[in-house]
């Protein structure tokens, strides 16, 4: 049994406490940590977690903590990863692994030198159709890859407060999943240039503050492949996560817009339901990513889907190039970001 402290019990942390407590084989949550103590205590009560704590240091002192799961806001990721690594605790962190490329590199390096199992929360790799598509693509089923396209449209209406969302969020927290899976499909190919077009189309009243809620990013790779990733904070019709890999001998599609195979046919036509949010639609993928983390701690061979520190850095490089491309309204050479 791997004993886990979950750090951060907000929207996704609360989901992760539930998933780890109820659905992940071999995992047990022994501590929940949040400076919002009432939130931590409520989670502890609900899931019979012995310790509800206010900061990570209190959890790292506990003898029975083997691993941490970090689900806190982005600026805290690097210091929390460094703290966990310094105590030799295996670490799963939500994306991105740092606030910029420099921080991401430091986070990956801290995990590497501590020799811990380190995994990044790129759960989309573990969603059934993405996982299957990756197996097919790596087996050569679509031939030489020409195009990868990836879509992340969050379910509307958008209810966020633009002034509390940093302009880089659409790239660093939303499209970072797409950047990761695009790189994963393209294997050893290296991204060369990035161009991002982004705007506040969902909340145009926030445009002057620099808020961004919609983006399309084009990435050219050194093997000739052209990738596009697009995001919106508000799809009026529901949760829309899809992708495709198109190659010289075929195409594979991932993701399903309807959330049920049931179709209603009436005089108005055909109807399918498309609602849901990540914690519902991708619950199985979150469980699978945690099972991969637990199996790695137990010493099992990685299955090739497990995103590690280098993957966290690679996705962050594309996010930073996209941020720069949007800010400077030009094509950015990936080399510029790597310097
Ligand atoms: N992989 C995914 O699909 C997915 C989905 C949603 C969010 N996320 C990521 O998860 C992270 C958290 O997002 P969220 O929507 O749950 O945020 P949130 O604001 O709902 O929750 C964050 C929680 O962390 C707590 N916190 C802040 N600083 C802390 C610290 N130092 N130690 C412990 N707790 C601390 C806050 O009090 C809050 O309860 C972000 O990085 C986000 O990008 C990933």
Characterization of the model:
The chain has 339 residues and is α/β, with parallel strands linked by helices. It has 2 domains: 2-116, Rossmann fold (3-Layer(aba) Sandwich), CATH 3.40.50; 124-278 and 308-338, 2-Layer Sandwich (Dihydrodipicolinate Reductase, domain 2), CATH 3.30.360.10. The chain is 37% helix and 25% strand. The chain has 11 helices and 15 strands. The chain has helices at 11-22, 37-47, 56-60, 77-86, 101-114, 128-138, 169-186, 278-281, 283-297, 309-328, 334-338, and strands spanning 2-7, 27-33, 51-53, 67-70, 90-93, 118-120, 145-155, 191-199, 214-221, 226-235, 240-247, 250-254, 264-266, 269-271, 332-333. The strands form 3 sheets. It has a 7-stranded mixed β-sheet with strand order 12-11-7-10-9-8-15. A 6-stranded parallel β-sheet has the order 3-2-1-4-5-6, sandwiched between helices. Strands 13-14 form a two-stranded antiparallel sheet. The longest helix has 20 residues, at 309-328. The mean pLDDT is 97. Nicotinamide-adenine-dinucleotide binds next to helix 1. It holds the Pfam family GFO_IDH_MocA. Keywords: NAD, Oxidoreductase. Belongs to the Gfo/Idh/MocA family. It comes from Brachybacterium fresconis.
């Amino acid at each position: 049994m791997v004993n886990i402290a979950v750090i951060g019990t907000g929207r996704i942390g609360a989901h992760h406490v539930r998933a780890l407590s109820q659905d992940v084989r071999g995992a047990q949550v022994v501590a929940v940590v949040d400076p919002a103590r009432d939130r931590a205590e409520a989670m502890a009560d609900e899931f019979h977690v012995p310790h509800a704590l206010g900061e990570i240091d209190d959890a790292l002192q506990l003898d029975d903590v083997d691993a941490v799961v970090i689900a806190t806001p982005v600026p805290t990721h690097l210091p929390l990863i460094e703290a966990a690594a310094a105590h030799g605790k295996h670490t799963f962190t939500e994306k991105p692994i740092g606030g910029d490329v420099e921080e991401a590199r430091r986070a990956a390096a801290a995990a590497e030198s501590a020799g811990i199992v380190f995994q990044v929360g790129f759960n989309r790799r573990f969603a059934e159709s993405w996982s299957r598509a990756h197996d097919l693509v790596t087996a050569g089923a679509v031939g030489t890859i020409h195009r990868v396209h990836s879509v992340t449209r969050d379910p509307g209406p958008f209810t966020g407060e633009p002034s509390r969302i940093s302009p880089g969020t659409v790239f660093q927290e939303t499209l970072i999943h797409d950047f990761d899976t695009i790189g994963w499909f393209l294997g050893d190919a290296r991204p060369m240039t990035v161009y991002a077009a982004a705007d506040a189309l969902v909340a145009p009243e926030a445009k002057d503050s620099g808020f961004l809620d919609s983006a399309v990013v084009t990435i050219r790779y050194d093997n000739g492949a052209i990738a596009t990733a697009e995001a919106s904070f508000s799809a009026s019709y529901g949760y829309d996560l899809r992708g495709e890999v198109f190659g010289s001998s075929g195409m594979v599609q991932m993701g399903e817009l309807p959330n049920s195979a049931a179709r209603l046919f009436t005089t108005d036509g055909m109807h399918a339901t498309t609602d849901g949010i990540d914690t519902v639609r991708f619950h199985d993928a979150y469980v699978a990513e945690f099972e991969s983390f637990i199996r790695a701690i137990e010493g099992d061979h990685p299955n090739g889907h497990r995103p590690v520190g280098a993957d966290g850095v690679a996705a962050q490089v594309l996010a930073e190039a996209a941020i720069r491309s949007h800010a400077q309204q030009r094509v950015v050479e990936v080399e510029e970001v790597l310097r």
